[in-house]
Amino acid sequence: MKSISCITAALLVEGALAATSGKFSILSMNVAGLPAILNQNDVPGDKTTNALSIGTKFAQYGFDVIHAQEDFNYHASIYQTDNHPFRTATSGGVPLGSGLNTLANLDWVDFKRIKWATCSDASSSDCLTPKGFTFMRLVISGSTDNTTTVYADVYNLHADAGTESADNVARQANINQVAEYIATWSKGNAVLVFGDTNSRYSRTADTAIRSLLANGLRDPWVDLQRGGVVPSVETLCANPSSNNTCETVDKVFFRSSPLATLQADAFRYASSLFLQADGNILSDHNPVNVNFTWSSGSSLRQSKFWGGPHGNWFSDATTLASISKPKPATLTFRGGSRLDNVGVTLKDGTALTHGGTGGTAVSLTLGTSEYWVEAQLCQGQKDGWTRVFYIRAATSSGRTVSSGTATVDCMSFSAPSGWQIVGFLGQAGDEVDQLAFVYAPK
C-alpha cells in the first residue's frame, strides 16, 4: 500500500512549477523504544526484533510524514529497515535523547528540538530524558525555479505522563509551551501538531488540549469520528483498537493559513497495520493515521526561503490577508556589508518592515500600473550564521533597486504569472537572516 501522494510530490519537485493542491498522509506512533530493562511497555517479544518490524512497516505503507515518540535505544533498528528519504538524526538513547524523530517523503527546513520547561517524576521518570517537542517547516510542494513553495509548520511532541497532581501541572505546562511557541514561531503559517500528548479530553484536569481547539487548531478525530463534539465521558481504546471513536492520548491538531489550506479527509487508528507475525502488538500505543488534502492560498502564496534560521520569526501573511488587493507603492531597503532591513509601503499606507536600523536606505516608488515582479537574494556567512547579504528588486517596468553586498551564493525569484511580490516572511534581528516573499494577484 504505497502512498500515491508521495509519488506525486516527487514528480512535482522535479518539475518547474509547484502544484497548487494535493494530498499527503501522516502517522503518529509511540514506538515503545525505552530500554527493556526500564520498561517492557506490555509488548510481547524482543524489542530489537519489534523495532525492525516497525521500520519495515513504515517503509511498506509509505506514510508521507511519520512522527515517532519513545524512539530511544532501538532507533537504529527502525531506520535500518525503513526507506523514507528524509529522516531526523537521533538525539540519543536514554538518558540523552528526547525520543522524538520524524521520517518523511517530504523535505523540511529549520528543524529544532525544544526541551520542556517543566517535568514531573510523580508517576514515572519523565525527567530522566530531555522530553519535549520538535519543530520543522515541511515542504509540501516546491518548484525548481523558486516561484512558489508551500510549507506547513510541523510539531512532534511527547508530553508528561501520569495523573498525579504534579503530572497534571507539568502536562498542562507542556501543552501550553507548544501553544506559545506556535503563537510566536508559526504566525501566519499552516500548522500540524501530532504526537503523544498523554492527555484525554475526558479528563477534567487535561484542559490544555481543549485550549488548543479554542485557539484555532482542529482535531480530525473530533471532527470526523465524534461529530465535532469534544467528549466528556472517557471511552478507552483497546490495543489493537476495533473502532475509531474511542479516545487515546495520541492526538493530531491542525490549522490552515492564508498561504495554505489543510483539510483532514480521514482519521483512523492504524493498529491492524502494526502487528507482529503472530498477531501481537508492536507498541502499547495505537498508531494514528490522518489523510489530508491541501491547497495553496487563493489570494496569497509564498516563495522558497533563502538565508539561515536565525533571528526572530516574522510574517506579513496575516496582515496582507486583511487587505483587499494589496499593492506596494514604495520599496525601501537598508544595507551595507549585509542586508539590514527590508520593507514595503502599500498603496493604502500599510508599512511592512523587518530587520534593524543600520546601513544606508534606498527606495523605489512604483507607478500606478507598475508591480514588483522579480527579486534576487544572496546569502553568506557572518559570525558562523548564514545571513542574507543582498537584495535586488525588479519591477514590471524594468526598473530596479538593490541593497547590501552581493555574494556568489544567490537565488532568483519571479512572481507567478499574473501575481506580484507584496511582502515578506523570514527571520531577522539587527540584520536580515532569512527571507521569503509573499505574492498576491495583480
Structure, explained:
The structure is a single chain. The chain is 16% helix and 38% strand. The strands form five sheets. Strands 3-4-2-1-11-10 form a six-stranded mixed beta sheet. A five-stranded mixed beta sheet has the order 5-6-7-8-9. Strands 12, 13, 14, 23 and 24 form a five-stranded antiparallel beta sheet that branches. It has seven helices and 24 strands. The N terminus is likely disordered. The protein has two domains: 293 residues, Endonuclease/exonuclease/phosphatase (Deoxyribonuclease I, Chain A, 4-Layer Sandwich), CATH 3.60.10; 141 residues, Vitelline Membrane Outer Layer Protein I, subunit A, CATH 2.100.10. By secondary structure, the chain is α+β, with helices and mostly antiparallel strands.
Low-pLDDT regions: 1-15
Proportion of residues in extended strands: 35-45%
Query: For this structure, what is the CATH homologous superfamily of the largest domain?
Result: Endonuclease/exonuclease/phosphatase
Helix tally equals: 7
- CA-based shape: elongated
Radius of gyration: 23 Å
The assigned CATH architecture of the largest domain is: 4-Layer Sandwich
Helix content: 10-25%
Protein name: Endonuclease/exonuclease/phosphatase
GO molecular function, one term: sphingomyelin phosphodiesterase activity
Organism: Podospora didyma
Pfam family, one: Exo_endo_phos2
